[in-house]
Amino acid sequence: MLYAAVGIVSLLVGILVGYILRKNSAEKTIGSAETQAKNIILDAENRSEAIRKETVSDARHEAHQIKAEAERDIKERREELKRQENRLIQKENAIDRKTEQIERKDEAASRKLQSLEEKEKEADAYIAKQVAELERISGCTAEEAKQMLLSDMEKDIRRDASIMIRDIEAKAKEEADSKAKEIITGAIQRCAADHVAETTVSVVPLPSDEMKGRIIGREGRNIRAIEQATGVDIIIDDTPEAVILSGFDPVRREVARLALEKLIVDGRIHPARIEEMVEKSQKEVNQIIKAEGEAATFEMGIHNLHPELVKLLGRLKYRTSYGQNVLKHSLEVAHLAGLMAGELGLDVKLSQRAGLLHDIGKALDHEIQGTHVDIGIDVLRKYKESEAVIDAMAAHHGDYEAKTPEAVLIAAADALSAARPGARRETLDTYIKRLQTLEEIANTTPGVEMSYAIQAGREIRIIARPDEVSDDAMPLLAREISKKIESELEYPGQIKVNVIRETRAVDYAK
């Protein structure tokens, strides 16, 4: 126990001594650290003071520089403002001087304007006085004098216009006639179409007059059967060894002609045989129509035509107009239009196609009501022809406006084909009526003394009254009459209007 107590006391003493020793050591260490910390703080304060002084010095230096630069900038701006102020003062002075000059000029202009107004009033008064004096001397008012002056001017202008028209027409004809004649004559020379003159009747020759009785039949049954089957009138008169077939439909007339010829050759003429022969003739004519249409398209090189249009073309073989075969006429128009289109650099194929189809309506004008132009338009549209072809066909008689150069060529070729000598013929009544109307149009024109239609109505010679129509007014009179003829008369080709003015002086030697 004693040893344990001693040990514990020793341990406690050791701990106490150790604690005292550590405390002393710690106090020494703490004192040394405090001293070191104070030294560090002092050193830091010294350094911060030095840095502060250096920073303040630099800042003062920089502020001094900024202040100097600002003062220089302010000085420069003040000088610039001063210069601008001087310039503005100079400009203001200049503007003031100009304003003064303008005011002086304005005052001078006002004085001049006032002076001019006074002079104008004086001039108006003087003119009114002179006009009154002139009216008193001349015996007419100013309005009457104005009308007289305008009348004289109108006469002069009409005379000048007449001279100008004459010169222009002469020059145009001189330049155009040569080229037009070259194109037209070349086209005519290269186109040779035959013309077959037929009318609304067909003559069937008979081997003898006995055949007339057989055609009539017992109580007229045979002739009635033929007329009923064909729709054609059969005229049996005193014409020796001939029977006349009359009808407006040329295809039916051709069927009747062929059937009657077959019956005459066969010799057996009775209603049953008549019906058989008419049916055979109808088939034969249909074949001929198709063949003629195909031949026409082949001749013109047109291969994409609708089959029904080809048949209608073939029907034109039996159609005549003024004695001119319409199919031959259509071929000629197609040739002429194509040749002229080639010379002028236009569409040759379009011109040929439109020329061939331009009278297609005449194949149906016996069956459908309306003009052949309107019928043709409906037919071509029905079979899907192009608008260019339809327009050219529609305009060939002037019923519709020509929209393309090819349409104008078709009209020219149609007139050319119809107007050539021998191409067409007219009935005597129509011919005489046209001549009378032509002379009447000319005679009713003021300034015309008399007129004469010559050259089968293709020229009219007009004798002008010399006291009413001057030489310079003759072109105007000719133009006026030609326009009246164009608007009031239908005619093939063209009509030459020839105005003649003659002044005669007569005296007698005694």
What's the structural blueprint in terms of helices and strands?
Blueprint lengths: L1 H137 L3 H49 L10 E5 L4 H7 L4 H10 L2 E3 L6 E5 L3 H17 L4 H30 L6 H9 L4 E2 L2 E2 H19 L3 H10 L14 H11 L4 H8 L10 H15 L8 H16 L4 E7 L4 E6 L9 H15 L7 E6 L9
Parallel strand pairs: 7-8
Antiparallel strand pairs: 1-3, 2-3, 4-5, 6-7
Descriptive notes:
The chain is mainly alpha-helical and 510 residues long. The chain has 14 helices and eight strands. Strand 7 (459-464), helix 14 and strand 8 form a beta-alpha-beta unit. It is 69% helix and 7% strand. The strands form three sheets. The protein has a three-stranded antiparallel β-sheet with strand order 1-3-2, covered by helices on one side. Strands 6-7-8 form a three-stranded mixed β-sheet, covered by helices on one side. The longest helix has 137 residues, at 2-138.
Distance between the termini: 216 Å
Distinct helical segment count: 14
Level of helix content?
Answer: 55-70%
Question: Which blocks of ≥5 consecutive residues have pLDDT under 50?
Answer: 192-198
Radius of gyration: 60 Å
Reading side by side through the largest sheet, how are the strands ordered? Answer: 1-3-2
Supply the helix-strand structural class.
mainly alpha
The main β sheet shows up as: 3 strands, antiparallel
User: Order of helices and strands, N to C?
Assistant: HHEHHEEHHHEEHHHHHHEEHE
Residue-averaged pLDDT? 80
- The total count of strands amounts to 8
Approximately what portion of the residues adopt beta-strand conformation?
A: 5-15%
